[in-house]
Amino acid sequence: MKTSLKDILYFIRKNKSFPIFLYSFLCRFIWTFVLFSYTNKIFLPVAICNLSMCISDFFLVIFYKKIKKIISFTYFVLELTFFALFEAYFTKIVCGMEFCLYACIPGIFLFLTEEKPPKYYFIIMTIILVLSIGFITYIKLSLLPPHFLFLPEQRSFLIANEFFYTITTLAFLLYGCLTADYALRYLEHKKNLFKKKIDYNSKHDPLTGLMNRRRISEVFNTCNNTKITENINYAVCIFDIDNFKLINDTYGHDAGDFILKQYTKKVWDAFPEPIKIGRWGGEEFLIIFPTINEKILYDLEDLRYSIASTPIEYNDIKITVTATYGISSSRTIDSPEKILADADEKLLEGKNSGKNRIIVSENF
Q: pLDDT digits over 120-151, tens only?
C-alpha cells in the first residue's frame, strides 16, 4: 500500500507522541557512537546505559500502536530522567541534560490534553522531574572539581554534551510549540464549526433540512422590511401533503418521514435561492418568494403536477403523493401574519374542494 505525505501527516496529528519516541531513538543512536568514542572508563557505564535506552526506545517505536499511550509516555519520561541522573552521577559533568527534563514538564502538560491519566499524574511526574533537576544542579554546582574539566577528554565531552542536549532540547520544545499551536488552531476551528452547527440546527428542521419557524420568522421580517423600504412585494405559499396520516398508518412512520424528505427535496430543487422553503409544522410547508413575477403560479402548477404524476418509491413500493397549495402576497396586505393567514385560508379551501390543487388568493 502506497503511503503518501498526507497519510503521514494525518498519522502524526493523531499520534503526537510518536515523533518524540522516534526522535529520542535517533538521538540516542547517534549519542551511543559519541559515548563509545571516549576511552576514559567513566564514560563506559554511561555508554552502555545509553545503548540499552536506545534499544528500549526502538521497541517503543516498533510497538507504538500496541502499547497504551499513557504507559509509553510515562516510561519515556522516567527513562529520560533516569539516564540524566545516571550520566550526571557517573561523569560529574553536567551541561544541558537538565534542559531535557525542563522540556518534559510542558511536554507532560500537552500530553494530558489528549489522554486521561490517573489522578495526580501531572503533579507526581512534575515532582519527580523537579527533584531530578535539583539533584543534577547540585552535582553541577557542588561536586565538580574545577581541574576536572581541564582534562582533554572531559572537556571534549562537556562541549559535546552542551551541543547535543541544547540541540535536542530545542528540537523537542519546537515540536511541542508547533503541536500546541496546531492543537489550539484545530480547537478554534472545531469551536467555530460547532457554533455554526448549533446556529444551523437552531434555524433548520432536522428531518428535511428546511428552515424551521424561527428562521422563517427572520425571512418574513426581511421581506417585510424590503417592502416597506423599497416597495418590493413578496408572496407566501403554504402547502400540505394530502392524506399524510393515511400514508403513516398504511406504510409506517419511517415511510412518512421518507415521503416528507423526498417531496420537499423536489420542491427545493424546483425553487432555488433566493426563494426560501421551510417547514411550518407536521406536513405543512412554506415557500417564500422574495419578489413576485408572472411565472410563480405556472412554476407551482408544473411542480404540483410533476410530483403528483410521479410516484415516490419506498422499499420497492410506489406511493402516489399529492399536496394542496394556498398562495397569497403582500400586494394588499400589510403584515406577514395576515399574508400567512390568508394563504392558510386558501389551503383549507383547497383541502375542502378535493385536494391536490392550488388555490390563489385574490390578494395575490
A: 888 899 999 999 989 888 887 776 555 666 67
What cell was used for 65? 500502536
Beta strands, E only, 235-308: 235-241, 276-281, 284-289
Q: Residue 129 corresponds to which cell in the numbers above?
A: 522531574
Q: Cell for 250?
A: 398504511
Other C-beta atoms closer than 10 Å to the C-beta of 360 total 19
- Are the C-beta atoms of residues 103 and 176 closer than 8 Å to each other? yes
Contacting residues for 332 by C-beta, under 8 A, at least 6 apart: 363
Grid cell 545509553 in the structure block, residue: 50
32-61 burial string, b = 16+ CB within 10 Å, else e?
bebbeebeeeebeebbebbbebbeebbebb
Phi, psi of 313 (to 5 degrees): -95, 125
Task: With beta carbons less than 8 A apart as the criterion, state whether 307 and 266 touch.
Answer: yes
pLDDT in tens, 265-307: 999 999 999 999 999 988 999 999 999 988 999 999 999 999 9
Cell of 193: 464549526
DSSP, res 140: I
The whole-angstrom separation of Cα 118 and Cα 70 is 9
CA dist 329 → 126, 290, 364 (Å): 71, 10, 5
CA triple 249-252-256, angle to 5 deg: 95
- Give this prediction's pTM: 0.60
